[in-house]
Design brief:
Blueprint: E1 8-12, H1 17-28, E2 32-37, H2 40-50, E3 54-58, H3 64-78, E4 83-86, H4 101-129, E5 132-137, H5 150-170, E6 175-182, H6 208-219, E7 230-233
The chain binds nicotinamide-adenine-dinucleotide.
The site of nicotinamide-adenine-dinucleotide has 29 residues, from helix 1.
Length: about 240
C-alpha cells in the first residue's frame, strides 16, 4: 500500500470545504501539508489543529509572485515538494446578457489562471526531483454545458485541457497531472442547490470526504501509471 509519509503537498483553497478535506486526508497519510488560502483565520486554525506537519500560507492563486515565494518558502522549510492540489475556486452564475466582464474575469482568473500559475510554479522543483503529482480540481461542469454557468464551465473545461497538455509535456520528467471532477458536494459553494432535484444514481449529494481519498490516490504511487486522466466523482450524476 502506497504511503505519502515524508512527502510535501501544497493544497490551494484548503481553509474550508473540499480543499480542507484534501489537506486533512493527505496529512492523515503522513504528508506534510501547506494549507494555502486567502482565508487566514480558517486556514490558520486548521494548520494549528493538524499540528507540526501542517502550515498555513496566505496565497491568492492569481498572484504570480506569491506563487514563486510559496514554492521557495516550502522548499526552504521542508526540503522538497511532491504534490500540488490546485483546488481554489469560485463559482458565479447569471444569464448570458447579465454575465458581466468582471464575473468572467474573476471566475477564469481563480479557477483557470490560478491553476496554470500553480502548475508553472512547482514544475522546476518537481523536474529537478524527477517526480511529482499535480491534481487539478475541475468539476462535472468541466464535462458538460450548464445554463448560467458560462464562465465557470469555460474555466473548468479549460482546467481539463491544461491538465492533458501538461500530462503530455511532463510525463517524461516523471510528473503526473490529472483532473478530478466532483459532482454535487455539500460545501459553502453549494448552499442554494437542492440535491433532491438532481438525478444522482447513488441517491444523495456528496460530502468532501467522498472526494478526498481519490485525491490521495492520485497524489500517491498507487496511481503511478495514471496521467492526463479525468476522475469523475459524482455519484453517477453525469452517467
Ligand atoms: P468553497 O468556497 O467552500 O472553498 C473554496 C476555497 O477556495 C475557499 O477556502 C476560498 O477561500 C478559496 N479561494 C477562493 N479564491 C481564492 C484565491 N484567489 N486564492 C486562494 N484561495 C482562494 O468551495 P468548495 O466547494 O470547497 O470548492 C473547492 C473546489 O472544488 C473549487 O475549485 C470548486 O470549483 C470545485 N468543485 C466544487 C464542487 C461542489 O459541489 N462543492 C463541485 C465540483 C467542483
Amino acid at each position: 500500500v502506497s504511503s505519502l509519509a515524508g512527502s510535501v503537498a501544497i493544497v490551494t483553497g484548503a481553509a474550508r470545504g473540499l480543499g480542507e478535506a484534501y489537506a486533512r486526508a493527505l496529512h492523515a497519510t503522513g504528508a506534510k501539508v501547506v494549507i494555502a488560502d486567502i482565508l487566514e483565520d480558517l486556514g490558520g486554525s486548521l494548520a494549528q489543529e493538524l499540528g507540526e506537519r501542517a502550515q498555513f500560507a496566505y496565497l491568492d492563486v492569481t498572484d504570480e509572485q506569491a506563487w514563486d515565494q510559496l514554492v521557495e518558502d516550502t522548499i526552504a522549510e521542508w526540503g522538497r515538494l511532491d504534490v500540488l492540489v490546485n483546488n481554489a475556486g469560485i463559482a458565479n452564475a447569471a444569464p448570458i446578457e447579465h454575465f458581466t466582464r468582471a464575473k468572467w474575469d474573476a471566475v477564469l482568473g481563480v479557477n483557470l489562471t490560478g491553476t496554470f500559475l500553480g502548475g508553472r510554479a512547482v514544475v522546476p522543483a518537481m523536474k529537478q526531483a524527477g517526480h511529482g503529482a499535480i491534481i487539478n480540481i475541475s468539476s462535472v461542469e468541466g464535462l458538460r454545458g450548464s445554463a448560467r454557468l458560462h464562465g465557470y464551465t469555460a474555466a473548468k473545461f479549460g482546467v481539463s485541457g491544461l491538465t492533458k497538455s501538461l500530462a503530455v509535456e511532463l510525463g517524461a520528467a516523471g510528473i503526473r497531472v490529472n483532473s478530478v471532477h466532483p459532482g454535487f458536494i455539500h460545501t459553502e459553494m453549494t448552499p442554494r442547490i437542492d440535491p433532491a432535484v438532481l438525478p444522482i444514481p447513488l441517491g444523495r449529494g456528496g460530502v468532501p470526504d467522498d472526494v478526498a481519498e481519490a485525491v490521495v490516490f492520485l497524489a500517491s504511487d498507487a496511481s503511478r501509471y495514471i496521467t492526463g486522466a479525468e476522475l469523475v466523482i459524482d455519484g453517477g450524476m453525469t452517467v
